[in-house]
Specification:
The model is unreliable at 322-329 (pLDDT under 50). Helix 1 runs parallel beside helix 2 and helix 1 (16-27) runs parallel beside helix 6 (291-314). It is built from six helices and 23 strands. The relative contact order is 0.17. Strand 7 and strand 8 form a beta hairpin. By secondary structure, it is α/β, with parallel strands linked by helices. It is elongated, with a radius of gyration of 22 Å. The protein has a five-stranded parallel beta sheet with strand order 6-3-2-10-21, covered by helices on one side.
Amino acid sequence: MPNTYQHEVVIIGAGPAGMCAAMYAGRAMLNTVVLERGFPGGELLNTELVEDYPGFERILGSELAQKFADHAVKFGATLRTGVTVSTLRKRDDGLFETVTDGGDVYVSPTAIITAGGTPVKLGIPGELEYAGRGVSYCAICDGAFFRNQIIAVVGGGDAATEESDFLTRYASKVYLIHRRDELRASKILQQRLFDNPKIEVIWDTVVERVEADAQGLVNNLMIRNVNTGVARHLFATGLFVFIGFRPNTGIIEGHVAHDDMGYLLTDPNMQTSIPGLFAAGDVRAQLTRQVTTAVGDATTAAIAAEKYLKALRDGERVPVIQGTGGYTA
């Protein structure tokens, strides 16, 4: 039978942002729960090694994820896994209802959405099997692991062209594989790509299969020309996929300010256009999406949520973001 739970802070998503927000909320002695549909860690669980998080020159993504979770629980946050949130709504009385697929309801005066985002997948054999073992969706995260190697990038937009150029800092050669005969990227990014001698564009082509060696590391791609139907092998030890990224914001009921890509707009305190609803990490519109920026967002969001709760108790007004810009008290 569905249950109803009362908390001061409900956090949706247990990636780095969610765990950091939970840690700070717990430290503030707030009754905090984190709801996660899978295991704690978010995209860290798809990352073999992390080398760009301060204090850890080299750490397994799964190990860092566990450290985040342990730290949050140590300070009193409740972590509930295997819980899928279906709807987040704000009631007329000002409280939030976070409803799960099982019908349970979590009621709280504040909520922090740290549900992250989902890279659009190719949906081909070997892609998920070798994720973190040659298949990646983040050039900044994983590029350094491919020094002096031959790698491939899939996509034709700004992200694919920009990241292809970035990856030549490490790789000896980068193939950009695109299913059409022209790129969608901005002209300046295209020119930069065409001027880079390390990049070769393979037009009118799709990747159909990812293959690996005996150690389970990517060493070959099966590609096919969409016009001729001819398939062939392409040697590559890495495959970076940039065909889109979707923020996980569909659970929010009612309008909330967002950009053209669906990322949530926030004020400097990480508050969305819905008072009391804060956002941190990959769901938020920002320049870059890294573990470091996620925990920075989350720190601000949790502290702001604490101050929001105090303002409610004291009968004060709290600042809210209006539409897509401008603030009011």
